[in-house]
Amino acid sequence: MNIIPAQEIKRRGLAAVDELIAKGDLHVIRNNQPQYVVISEDRYQELIMAEQEAYYARVRAALSDVKGGKVKTFKTAADLLKALETDETE
Prior knowledge:
The protein has helices at residues 6-12, 14-21, 41-67, 77-85, and strands at residues 2-5, 26-30, 33-38. It has 90 residues and is α+β, with helices and mostly antiparallel strands. The chain folds into 2 domains: 2-39, YefM-like fold (3-Layer(aba) Sandwich), CATH 3.40.1620; 42-85. The chain is elongated.
């Protein structure tokens, strides 16, 4: 990952970011600590799509568990808590 001090952006503007973002994601350092990450629009869209795909995969897995009878239900929250304490949910 590329690194740029916030002062460099302040001094040179977005031109400083443009030069480095072409090489990949960019950490912006402020007070000697990473404060921000700048990514390209394409990379942002990739991350959003990956997040959505992971979400759908979790939902599909949960539905599969429900259909497969792997899900246990409880009548009350107290029953759920009791089961969690005694590991009855496995």
